[in-house]
């Protein structure tokens, strides 16, 4: 009888820990779960960065269109040159302002002269900038380096010589 009790006590005493196989299984399951979560998180972060960049690009393009509209609306007569330059006659009679691209592919406002040293940047790193005037509407198209094309049309003021004939 004592030997049976001793065998039972010894077996209970031996079963207190985990085997090496059980530990390896737990570690491998935790590793698989962690790697799946890491992959999902990386994909989520990539989509998040793309959305942020797209949103930022859209914001900057809309701000550029707003600045162009303010310049057109605040000044006088507007014409285009070579389908990529907006020429705006100033109300103060001191020449023209030019909205154009520079050699760095930035859209800029050049004051008083087409290549005057005083300029303001409107938008940086674009692929293409096109303008077209049709009667009293100015069509502006901006293509980004990523290939996205943004278009906007702006109403133009009626010139003084046309007001009298209408």
TrEMBL record:
* Residue ranges of the TM segments: 20-40
Name of this protein: Prepilin-type N-terminal cleavage/methylation domain-containing protein
Which keywords describe this protein according to UniProt? Membrane, Transmembrane, Transmembrane helix
Q: What Gene3D superfamilies does the record tag this protein with?
A: Glycoprotein, Type 4 Pilin
Please give the organism: Clostridium scatologenes
InterPro entries tied to this protein: N_methyl_site, Pilin-like
Could you tell me which Pfam families the record lists for this protein?
Answer: N_methyl (PF07963)
Its lineage opens with:
Bacteria, Bacillati, Bacillota, Clostridia, Eubacteriales
Q: Please, which domain of life does this record's source organism belong to?
A: Bacteria
Matching NCBIfam families: IV_pilin_GFxxxE
């Amino acid at each position: 009888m004592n030997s049976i009790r001793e065998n039972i006590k010894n077996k209970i005493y031996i079963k207190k820990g985990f085997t090496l196989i059980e530990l390896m299984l737990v570690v491998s399951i935790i590793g698989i779960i962690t790697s799946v979560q890491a992959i999902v998180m990386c994909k989520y972060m990539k989509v998040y960065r793309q959305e942020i960049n797209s949103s930022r690009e859209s914001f900057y393009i809309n701000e550029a269109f707003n600045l162009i509209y303010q310049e057109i609306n605040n000044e006088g007569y507007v014409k285009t040159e070579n389908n990529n330059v907006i020429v705006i006659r100033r109300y103060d009679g001191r020449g023209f302002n030019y909205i154009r691209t520079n050699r760095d592919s930035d859209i800029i406002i050049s004051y008083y002269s087409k290549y005057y040293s005083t300029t303001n940047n409107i938008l940086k790193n674009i692929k293409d900038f096109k303008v077209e005037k049709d009667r009293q509407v100015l069509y502006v198209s901006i293509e980004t380096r990523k290939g996205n094309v943004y278009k906007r049309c702006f109403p133009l003021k009626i010139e003084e010589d046309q007001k009298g004939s209408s």
